[in-house]
Amino acid sequence: MSSPTARPVCLSIAGSDPSGGAGIQADLKTFSALGVYGAAALAGLTVQNTQGVRDARGVDPAFVVAQVAAVVDDLPVAATKIGMLSDATTASAVAGLIRERRDAFGVIVLDPVMVATSGDRLLAEDAVEAIRADLLPLADLVTPNLPEAGVLLGVAEAEDVDGLREQALALIRAGTRAVLAKGGHLRGDALLDVFADAAGVADLTGERIATRNTHGTGCTLSSAIAACAARRGDTRETGVSRAAIEDARRYLADAIAAGAGWRLSRTPESGHGPVDHLVTLG
């Protein structure tokens, strides 16, 4: 006999990072650290480490969709995180399955991964329009950083907090349900993200930690939001709660602080090391 579900189920649809700091590897570690059951469908392959991305390849879109379908056929997914989808065909194929079976995916957190921390591009140019047209309307929350917000809107990157607020609101006007526009690229001692939904805009502040170990922070935050939303019981009706976002931001801050002094790489001075995803485990 099957036992009652002990933990909420979260699904990541994203690319890989063989060095473990970003992508699906980071997502699964984050899910485990936050007490949810993690499932994952591989949508892209990379050859990368803390020093940069050496190569990136897509996965056959039909095979990506088959992986996702196998998960939702079997597991009661409470929250889905969507990350790197490589190209337009894959993004459109995943969007098509979600439209057909929207109730099977729970709340959806879309991290529009375009560029790695190292600056290497991870998304084909033709995929931007597919994400904008097909996936943004399906997401309960989208989590772009400064460059990604500008690309999604087809405008220049915001240069200050006022610009970031305006771009977050512009994404809402474009049809997105809610936005967490990440301000990590802005200068200053404080870390500021902007949350926007139909009710308006709010600044979320935090401490900026001086460290090179920021590899995979975007992947980690979006998967943490999905996990926290699942744990809090967020639904399609409620959307992703601000409380879940605050929980996830605290987890990421703790993970960055715990890994700030790590020197995992053979050459830590020239790359970007990972955060401590397992900070919650002591």
Automatic annotation (TrEMBL):
**InterPro entries per the UniProt record, alphabetical:** HMP/HMP-P_kinase_dom, PM/HMP-P_kinase-1, Ribokinase-like
Supply the CDD domains for this chain.
HMPP_kinase (cd01169)
Top-rank lineage group of the source organism: Bacteria
Entries under Pfam families matching the protein: Phos_pyr_kin
Supply the EC number(s): 2.7.1.49, 2.7.4.7
Q: Which UniProt keywords apply?
A: Kinase, Thiamine biosynthesis, Transferase
**Entry GO MF terms:** hydroxymethylpyrimidine kinase activity; phosphomethylpyrimidine kinase activity
Pathway listed for it is: Cofactor biosynthesis; thiamine diphosphate biosynthesis; 4-amino-2-methyl-5-diphosphomethylpyrimidine from 5-amino-1-(5-phospho-D-ribosyl)imidazole: step 3/3
**In this protein, which residues make up the domain named Pyridoxamine kinase/Phosphomethylpyrimidine kinase?**
17-263
**What is catalysed by this protein?**
4-amino-5-hydroxymethyl-2-methylpyrimidine + ATP = 4-amino-2-methyl-5-(phosphooxymethyl)pyrimidine + ADP + H(+); 4-amino-2-methyl-5-(phosphooxymethyl)pyrimidine + ATP = 4-amino-2-methyl-5-(diphosphooxymethyl)pyrimidine + ADP
This chain's function reads: Catalyzes the phosphorylation of hydroxymethylpyrimidine phosphate (HMP-P) to HMP-PP, and of HMP to HMP-P.
For this entry, the protein name equals: Bifunctional hydroxymethylpyrimidine kinase/phosphomethylpyrimidine kinase
Identify the coding gene: thiD
